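Researcher: Here's the sequence for the chain we discussed earlier.
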Amino acid sequence: MMHLRVDRATPVLVQGITGRAGRQHSRLMRQYGTRIVAGVSPITEMRDVDGVPVFAACGDAVAATGATASVLFVGAMQLLAAIREAVEAGIKLIITPTEGMPVHDALSALRLTRAAGVTWVGASTPGMAVPGAAKLGFLPDSALMPGPVGIASKSGTLSYEAGYRLAQQGIGQSVWVGVGGDPVKGTRFADLVSFYAADAPTRSVLIIGEIGGSEEEEFAQALIALRFPKPVFALIAGRSSPEGVTMGHAGALVHGRHGSYDAKKEALEAAGAKVFGTLDEMVAGIRAWHARLQGVTISKPAWAADTADDPPT
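Model: Thanks. This is the structure I predict for it:
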């Protein structure tokens, strides 16, 4: 079970709340509507941050507030210990924006969270959001809008632009999960397939991937295995990237055809997804689907002018 349906009532901790990033993003999350009930910092005598009580340990914070989710703004080398503390305290949703988590630590955190039935999003994630209800992390407010499209993204900045452009068209998101670009992480695209299939407010899914690794191919296999019942759209960054060069994220590395744009596009299309070549095509295609969802007739998007194939319905 994935614990992603947060709302305005969900009690949230911020581990590392007294640091610069923790203070800043706690303030921004609260302004959005996230119910931050406590902070955790074992190395400070501060009793509160902007009125949010600060505890020395997760266990104390959970006992006092009933928190079920935590956002961790701690250093990469402290991340595994902070995740372990959150799990032991009974937290069910953990978000870790920190970059640079050692791979061995990430493997340990993955085993730990899965054994405990905890949903871990990260590392190297901008976070997740249920637009209009709560956000955990630092997804930009300007890109968030309640709506029917579930977004799962590896690429942070490209997903911000995609979300913003869709929002400008009046098309919002149901649940947005930034899975991050690390090769070892808590949540992968394929892990979200069952969640989005069962989530009633999600009427379609957009994945924003990138070259390297096999995550998009795994996602395609999961779509086929589940006979995913909803339209799936995809935008893959890195189409013109050279082979054998790491591009941005640690996982964005292509060797031959493995992890290439063409391999990902082929796998996704075989699973029934519509893969767009550009942001403009993506916006036009999803706008056409959204119009049909609402029973509105609009002109065919430019990308489809020479083909009989429409985006999935």
